[in-house]
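LOG
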Amino acid sequence: MTEGHGDDIYRYDDIRINFSSNVYTHADLSKLEEHLREMVGMIRNYPEPEPFSLEAVIARKYDIPTECVLVTSGATEAIYLITRTFALQQESFSASILHPTFSEYEDACRMYGIPTLPDNEANAHSILWLCNPNNPTGSVVSPEKIQQYARQFDYVVVDQSYEDYTQAPMLTPQEAVSSDNILQLHSLTKTYAIPGLRIGYIIAPSHLIGLLRQYMGPWTVNTLAIEAGKWLIENDVRVLPDINTYLKETERLRQCLNQIPGIKAAETQTNFFLAQVTPSTAAELKDYLARYHHILIRDASNFRGLTPHHFRISTQTSQENDMLVNAIEEFMQRKKRSQRGNNLFPTWECIVSDLV
């Protein structure tokens, strides 16, 4: 679903505050940028066919065997690699997906012909896809529940891309390695707020990592991404805000939005959350915010199981969050006046047509 993700800032001329991406947007990356400028001469040569040097750094970080780590070009490549690998086995696999969730699990299954089961059922040779913390709801499944799923399904893929944005307990790499059937996805993209570099990795038992390597092409991770990953981990860099403070601000933002008539913001365990707007649609709200306030939110209506009224936002600074609240409150007030026939604000049909 390349056209349906958030952070579509490229569609707009002058977005100044971006609530649509779950990745923290205020990270100080100046030292990383300085390091990569020193490394830029390496682009004259091919990268490692497989990024073993970065895998070794990750293995040392978690004190696990190197053969239990596989680095990919972002967590999304890992999703498609896992799906392709199972699709090419002799057994016929099916997938169970807990909706609403990240669309790429279902898209990858569709691409490689793996059927998805209704009602999240388990079946022979079944794979459970689990986003944890879950995008877009912000909910978290406990490690104990994941272990229960691992006894129910043939394989469990746990996408922990947003693990650094929550205080909830996460399944550890050691637990994934010691299992027989858990594949754990991680995202340096999210941890270090570098979505443009595309660095992810899989941690799993060595026999599963060995199987995945058979279906992975060479040079999928570029040189600068490899060097960035090694430098960030080896220097124990921290770019995210204090998580306790960050989540308190998330809760403050959520409560402020819930005070606006027509807005309902759901509970979350991470830095992003779902909200609903009624009677307007999320698309109307998104277009208004982008056009009149240079603010971008995520229209979440294309997540399976959600409605045209759902949108997702990710917490920013206190000042920016207050600007969002004020802008949404203005939207709701003007919408209410327009429904009463007040000529001080143009009809929504005109506004939408102007934005197309």
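LOG (cont.) second protein
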Amino acid sequence: MPTLEKIIVQDFRNIAFQELSFSPNVNCISGGNGEGKTNLLDAVYYLSMTKSAFSPSDRFNFRYGCDAFSLAGTYAMPSGLSSVITMSVSSSGEKKVRRDDKPYARVSEHIGLLPVVMVSPSDSALVSESGEERRRFMNAVLSQMDREYLSDVQQFNRLLAQRNLLLKKGTPEEDYLEVLDLQMSGYAQRIHSARKAFAAQLTPAVSRFYGILSSGREDVCVAYRSDMDQAPLEELLRGCRERDFAMRFTTAGPQRDDLVFLMDGHPIRRAGSQGQQKSFLVSLKFAQYEIMKEKYGFAPILLLDDVFDKLDLGRISNLLSMVAGSDFGQIFITDSNKVRMAGILDTFTSDRAYFECTGGTFKEL
């Protein structure tokens, strides 16, 4: 499995320049709020996904006063050899991604080489916000495991934008719409099939991990909802043509797909406490981890950002007993409470490294 041996970060968020070497097992980063712990984890995520886990635009990733940032990671690969991944981004929007100093023809070709799973407080949006957040979650997971899925989503979104532009003009040519509908249908069917299969894998895994975290106090499940459960996209679009003309956008299709999160048969958004929702989200991400591990045949890198927040000591202990097991690979954990993190982790594993962060500067303890 790939493990990050060394990282070099320059002008990323509040990190001016940092070079760090890591343990192949557990890496613990402590520090106060706003000091840069999350930024380091986001740099690790960026090296895998070629984008931030938090910022939709790269302009939010430049250190204040800078017009570029760069990242470099040295990885021990499953082949036994090392590989160096470098990324540089400028304020002009130019993004360069290289593997062993060889540029990719397309940035998207890098996705999936270094599988990664991040658990962070921002995951709360998966419960509290719109279906767009949950579709983004599905896309992020499936794109790492299936390059054709990523291409299908990109092509579908391109055609959807064309269709919506025609509808927005108010006088679309129906013949042209039919051509677009036919082209979109093939991509949509493959997207729907992939998401449906993924959701079917999620429920038993989420339920099992949640049972461990909560000591079996509640039952949870994940349900997939899609317009295409009723009919193929081409048929749906034909049936809602008049509505689309009136609304001036496409009202059916995979762009409306959603995941429904339930606890004891009720939406967890309304029925779950903060601790229960946090436990569910951690379980969801661990289920993602397990599915990706099965697909790849090795463990992804696991990033746990402020994961102890809103969890009681019992759930924290259950969580760490899981991640310290042999089923997990390289792990990065952040916490503002160094004593709490060390006190709990030291009882589970001695193979770990500790780092402390102050003002974007990190030192190994």
